[in-house]
Design a protein that fits this description.
- The protein is an alpha/beta fold and 250 residues long.
- It has one domain (23-249): 3-Layer(aba) Sandwich (Carbamate kinase).
- Helices cover 35% and strands 18% of the residues.
- It has helices at 40-55, 72-77, 82-106, 128-136, 154-164, 198-203, 211-219, 234-239; strands at 20-25, 59-64, 111-115, 124-125, 140-144, 169-174, 179-180, 192-193, 195-197, 224-228, 246-249.
- It has a nine-stranded mixed beta sheet with strand order 4-3-5-2-1-6-10-11-9, sandwiched between helices.
C-alpha cells in the first residue's frame, strides 16, 4: 500500500490512485510556528499542496479544524457550557475556511465554502447536492462549521462529508508521517504502522481520529490515509499512492 506507484506499464504517469479525496487538516497545523491564529505562509503552502493534486486531475474537498482559534472542549473545562463552546469552535472553523479559500483563489483554484451553520453573508449553506455539483465542476469545496451540531468533532464531520461526497479516500494531515503506537516526538522507540484495520484503531485506542469518525469511515468503506503535511509534496504523493503514510482499511 505505502510505496505503491501510480504509473502505467510503460513508466508514464497515470491519473491519481484516489480520484476524489477529502483532506482533513487541524487548525493547529495552520498555525505554523505561531502560538495562536493563522500563519499566512502555512496556509499558502497547504493551498499549494491542494493545487498540485488538482493539477494532477484529482478532486479535493477539505474539512479544517478550529483549534488554532478556539476549542469547545477547553472552553467547557474552563466552566463554559459545552454546547456554547462547541458553537464557538464551529465559528473558528469558518474563519479558517475563509482564509484557505482566499489562499486557493489567489492561486487560481475556484473554491466554495459551505457551512453547516448558515452564515449567508460570507459562505453558502451546506446542501449536499450543491456541494456535489461544485466538485463535478472542478471546484475545491471546503466544509465549515463541522456537522453543525455540538458534541461532534471535525474528525466526525470529515468522515460524514467524505461519505456524503462519495470520496475514494479521506486523508488526515498530521505532524508525523503515519500512525504510531505512541507519540514519536516523546517516545523515540515508538512503532510506526504501515497498515491498520478500523478495528485495530478502535481496539488499541490509537489516537488517529475519534471513534465516531473511524466507525463512520468503516461503515462506508472509506480508507483513511495518515501522512505528514510538513513534507513538501506529500499530499500529491499520497493521492498518487506514493510516499510515506499509514493506510487504515477493513
Amino acid at each position: 500500500m505505502s510505496g505503491d506507484t501510480a504509473t502505467d506499464a510503460d513508466g508514464s504517469k497515470s491519473g491519481p490512485r484516489f480520484k476524489r479525496v477529502l483532506l482533513k487538516i487541524s487548525g493547529e497545523a495552520l498555525m505554523g510556528d505561531l502560538s495562536y491564529g493563522l500563519d499566512p505562509n502555512m496556509v499558502d503552502r497547504v493551498a499549494g499542496e491542494v493545487e498540485s493534486v488538482l493539477d494532477a486531475g484529482g478532486e479535493v474537498c477539505l474539512v479544517i479544524g478550529g483549534g488554532n482559534i478556539f476549542r469547545g472542549i477547553s472552553g467547557a473545562a474552563a466552566g463554559m457550557e459545552r454546547a456554547t463552546g462547541d458553537y464557538m469552535g464551529m465559528l473558528a472553523t469558518v474563519m479558517n475556511s475563509l482564509a484557505m479559500q482566499s489562499a486557493l483563489e489567489k492561486r487560481g483554484c475556484p473554491t466554495r465554502v459551505l457551512s453547516a451553520l448558515p452564515i449567508a453573508a460570507v459562505c453558502e449553506p451546506y446542501i449536499r447536492r450543491r456541494a456535489m455539483r461544485h466538485m463535478e465542476k472542478g471546484r475545491v469545496v471546503i466544509f465549515a462549521a463541522g456537522t453543525g451540531n455540538p458534541f461532534f468533532t471535525t474528525d466526525t464531520a470529515a468522515a460524514l462529508r467524505a461519505s456524503e461526497m462519495g470520496c475514494d479516500a479521506m486523508l488526515k494531515a498530521t505532524k508525523v508521517d503515519g500512525v504510531y503506537d505512541a507519540d514519536p516526538v516523546k517516545v523515540p522507540t515508538a512503532k510506526r504502522y504501515e497498515t491498520l484495520t478500523y478495528m485495530d484503531v478502535l481496539r488499541d485506542d490509537l489516537k488517529v481520529m475519534d471513534a465516531s469518525a473511524i466507525s463512520l469511515a468503516r461503515e462506508n468503506g472509506i480508507p483513511i490515509l495518515v501522512f505528514s503535511i510538513h513534507n513538501n509534496g506529500a499530499f500529491a504523493d499520497v493521492v498518487q499512492g506514493r510516499g510515506r503514510f499509514t493506510i487504515i482499511t477493513e
